[in-house]
From TrEMBL:
Protein's UniProt name: AIG1-type G domain-containing protein
The keyword Membrane belongs to this UniProt entry's keyword annotation: no
Keyword Cell division (UniProt): no
Family designation: Belongs to the TRAFAC class TrmE-Era-EngA-EngB-Septin-like GTPase superfamily. AIG1/Toc34/Toc159-like paraseptin GTPase family. IAN subfamily.
Coiled coil stretches, renumbered: 212-296
Organism classification: Eukaryota, Metazoa, Spiralia, Lophotrochozoa, Mollusca
Listed Gly residues bias regions: 316-325
AIG1-type G domain residues: 16-220
Amino acid sequence: MEVESKQPRLSGATDAAELRIVMIGKTGTGKSATGNSILGNREFKTCLSGSSITTACQLGIKTRFNRKISVVDTPGLYDTGMTTEQVTTEIVKCITMTAPGPHAILLTVNVGRFTDEEHDTVKHFVNHFGEGMYNYLLVVFTRADELVKNNQNITDYVRGCPQSLKEILELCHNRYIPYDNTLSDSRLELQVKDLIGKVDEMVNRNNGNWYTNEMYEEAKKLMQRREEAVKQKLKEEEQRKVKHLQDEFDKQITLVEKKQAEQLLVQANKANEDRVAQLQKQMESERRLAQQMVDMKKEHDKALHAALSRPVTVTTGGGSRCSLM
């Protein structure tokens, strides 16, 4: 499956006497060593190290096989001590250093385990240079001597490589080559010729075009649009989260207010009940007092009536008595 570049392909006929190459890959995959072998000269510093020696893009130029060959060695991502943004800024320089643009981008991958970081390295470059970059990509499997030791050919190795690497190979039209930087001078020279032959095939496939600065600018604009879309999406998600939290807060406030209202109602009802009980008690006391007063009046009336009902004896002057009713 061919990845069609959405960027304009601006270039004229390729000068067969000139070849411009950019090296990319994770630290420890032989970028610098492969660049040196292509140039036939030790232009880039190499050593066995877990951290990147190359922290800035370096340009090496050599006339070899009657051709002017330019190679740019780039820093490795994730292990330079630099931030990803700093590395990206540095790598972008490779476009101007190979002006008017590179014919080939060589991705170095060790024979063996293809790591997530290596996959992310390719993804990182594609994000910045656009998917059209795959049209200029050639995978170089370094440490090919391991294949010889294991009596394995490159075709069988690729057939059994991780799916993530197979996807990259498919996107770059299955362009790959085994490479052994430990070969002797004569054999190493033949290997370099094979590599340049692969690059020339790719250049012909691209109709003599190279990756241009205009393509990068278009890819950068596309990436900026993607970043803006991501930022907008994150902003909308943040706004939804804030709204959700506000709604939850309002619910809690409503629940608290409702609970407080219920508590106040209970307190008011309790106060009313206490007041009613107090009034009932007071009324009962007043009723009993009134009843006592009624009873006392009845007793008084009864006593008065009894007193008035008794006959009164009056003694007359003649000594006789008479009763008065």
